[in-house]
């Protein structure tokens, strides 16, 4: 049984209409739906085109222009450089998997926090800073594990690409190219 997406219609006047509540909402309300893990779909009211990605990117842009941006200049320029490159198709799944791993890391940290402090609403940013100082070695271990998993995923992705390239181009004779198995056999003879 699949859960239907909550449909938000965007009108030419840029207003967003939540079909579930039959009311106009703001971009901030859409952000809150995402934070509340509501599966949404934004459609152009006139053309019925799915414009969810562009609305989500608009939310990210507003967040980036706010107080503490998540993406550095270098990260943004690297994203732009990947467009049109051979690795572009692999970048999305790689980032998606890394975000999943990072979410798991965050859940572990939250579980540790809850184990130490319970559901104490007083646990604010200052206490979080103290917790991070106290849990330094454990945090480093968790981050190291995350980085190892991330590196492993990248290596797996690279190996899959090599295998796909071998299957795709294996039947073609390229001048100067010697297949690894063929080169090994020639050296033995």
UniProtKB/TrEMBL annotation:
<protein>
    <submittedName>
        <fullName>Polyhydroxyalkanoate synthesis repressor PhaR</fullName>
    </submittedName>
</protein>
<feature type="domain" description="PHB accumulation regulatory">
    <location>
        <begin position="71"/>
        <end position="110"/>
    </location>
</feature>
<feature type="domain" description="PHB accumulation regulatory">
    <location>
        <begin position="123"/>
        <end position="162"/>
    </location>
</feature>
<dbReference type="Pfam" id="PF07879">
    <property type="entry name" value="PHB_acc_N"/>
</dbReference>
<dbReference type="InterPro" id="IPR012909">
    <property type="entry name" value="PHA_DNA-bd_N"/>
</dbReference>
<dbReference type="InterPro" id="IPR010134">
    <property type="entry name" value="PHA_reg_PhaR"/>
</dbReference>
<dbReference type="Pfam" id="PF05233">
    <property type="entry name" value="PHB_acc"/>
</dbReference>
<feature type="domain" description="PHA accumulation regulator DNA-binding N-terminal">
    <location>
        <begin position="7"/>
        <end position="66"/>
    </location>
</feature>
<dbReference type="InterPro" id="IPR007897">
    <property type="entry name" value="PHB_accumulat"/>
</dbReference>
<dbReference type="GO" id="GO:0006355">
    <property type="term" value="P:regulation of DNA-templated transcription"/>
</dbReference>
């Amino acid at each position: 049984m699949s859960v239907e997406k909550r449909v938000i219609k965007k009108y030419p006047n840029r207003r967003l209409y939540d079909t579930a509540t039959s009311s106009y909402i703001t971009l901030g309300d859409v952000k809150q739906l995402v934070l509340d893990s509501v599966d949404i779909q934004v459609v152009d009211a006139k053309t019925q085109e799915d414009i969810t990605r562009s609305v989500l990117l608009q939310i990210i842009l507003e967040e980036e222009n706010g107080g503490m941006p998540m993406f550095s200049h270098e990260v943004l320029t690297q994203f732009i450089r990947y467009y049109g490159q051979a690795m572009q198709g692999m970048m999305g799944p790689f980032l998606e998997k890394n975000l999943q791993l990072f979410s798991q890391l965050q859940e572990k940290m939250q579980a540790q926090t809850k184990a130490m402090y319970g559901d104490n609403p007083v646990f604010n940013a200052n206490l979080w800073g103290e917790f991070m100082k106290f849990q330094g070695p454990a945090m480093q271990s968790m981050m190291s594990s995350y980085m190892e998993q991330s590196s492993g995923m990248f290596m797996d992705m690279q190996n899959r690409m090599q295998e796909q390239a071998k299957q795709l181009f294996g039947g073609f004779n390229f001048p100067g190219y010697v297949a690894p198995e063929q080169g090994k056999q020639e050296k033995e003879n």
